[in-house]
Amino acid sequence: MFDMTPNILRNFFHKSSTRLYPKETRQAFGNARGELYNEIEACIFCRTCARKCPSQCITVDTKEATWQCDPFVCVYCGVCVENCPKKCLHQKNDYRKPVTDKEIIFMKGETKKKKCEGDPQET
Amino acid sequence: MKEVISTTKGTVVSKTVDMKKDGYRFVTMSCVELDADTVDILYHFDRDLHLKHLRLTIQKKEAVPSVSLVYFAAFLVENEIQDQFGIRFDGLVLDYERTLYLEKEAPDAPYCRISVSRDVKSGED
Amino acid sequence: MARTIIPFGPQHQVFPEPIHLKLVLEDEIVKEVVPALGYVHRGLEMLADVRDFHQMIQICERVCGICSTIHAQCYCQGIEELMGIEIPDRARFLRVIWAEIHRVQSHLLWLGLFADAFGFESLFMQCWKIREKIMDINEATGGNRVNPSINIIGGVKRDMNPDMAQWVLTQLDLVEKEVNHLEKVLLNDYTVKKRTVGKGVLTREKAMELGAVGPTLRGSGVEQDIRQIGYAAYGELAHRPVVGIDGDAYSRNRVRFLETLQAIALVREAVSKLPAGDISVKVKGKPEGEVVTRVEQPRGELMYYIKGNGGKNLDRLRIRTPTFANIPPLLSMLPGIELADVPVIVLSIDPCISCTER
Questions:
Q1: C42-353: CATH homologous superfamily?
Q2: What's the rounded mean pLDDT across residues B80-107?
Q3: Please, which chains are in contact with C (at least 3 CB pairs closer than 8 A)?
Q4: Which residues 93-122 on chain C approach chain B with CB closer than 8 angstroms?
């Protein structure tokens, strides 16, 4: 009849299962895939990330040397990071903080002087 | 896909009845568009973890005899195919009249490539 | 008394997702049920036309949030069969580990929702509290909480080093201990029994005829589980389906509870047998031909039909999810029961509506 009671009592004498969130946060796991960022200085604007992205949240303009990402479309799968030929895309372990307005990450780099030899072809 | 048996419109129901007599469980049906006019309808059956398939190739305009009287479970997937490919099934036990997923104003066959591109073109004109 | 039609859903307190049931009642007794779907239809299958077959992995994962890894696994398995790729042994075992971790997560979620369906709020909270540990395991090993995205065509993306595997096992020990505390409640408690025993009976014959799958089928006494085929590494692990006898809501509850413990045991066994070696092979070429592939999801048999034409987009991708197969059996369970029991019966098939409509 009172099968749940031992569980309830155990919870009663146990420390809280939840955190007081903004005050107290859990440390991110080392393997977690969080916020995406681009080291724009190293980027060669080859568009591999834009092509490989399953949610197509990245737009790259090779001529203008711009890199854009819509963080609200991104699914944080990490495919772009794995395929980046220059390894300039990274993911933090922490998630993006919630915001009140939609925004697009816009980055402008410098057009590379010499033409990078052969954009990595799609396999 | 190893065991695929071809059928025609006339024999599909009787072959399904044979399957049921042999103790097969109805898994599902798949509709595959082949070209502008024809589609393949695949019937998947399972017995003791062993799959068997029936293949029916038909014209899009033709009505297909429903197997939902043999396997009641088929009514849901047949309604789904009606919605997605615009193919009619005759003798459905429960016919949603193409409103299972779609609204009334939806295109005729949203899962057919050819009809979709035609709609887009006429929209631009 | 005259017949009354009660619209049940699409928004109802017990439904996690929208499904609409038209219930024809006589007094309090359900006489007839007509389901209406289409509230979360997304047309994901058609995305195969615009995304290439590598990108489809992430899309398949999002067919269902609760069993995402297993969807991706099924899809990758199908493409690998089409392209004739043999994946490394280590990848096969890692896929089993992640799939079973996912099964624990899904079953705990369901046990909670089921308790919630008959108003056992504290049990619901308790189940979800335990589940949180599994989500942490997902994040620490796979990278994300819900869609770990570890399956790729040709193997898996991430490896599990011995330290990590040990940590997973310790966490699972804690989970198992807590799940065991709930055994008495879920299987013996007065409230649970009163609301579930003898409700929504699905006989063995009916279950086979209507094409029930997964715990719904096994709860009716049929010993059938796609894992018996031995896909991935299941052939090398000791696994026997959990079977109920009565075919009522209680029996399905019991099957799922025991499967949770079995899944934990399977993870342990898979970790102990984890072979060394590569985790993926290089993939060249494009898929061509057609294939039907199946895996066992927490809710039952999942079937993918894939047709490739040698290009980078697939010709057709058809997904048959377990809930889709479990709706006709549900329609046969409902007539003859009281209106107040409808939520419990509907929940007892573990409905996943966004899976169903894709």
A1: Cytochrome-c3 Hydrogenase, chain B (1.10.645.10)
A2: 81
A3: A, B
A4: none
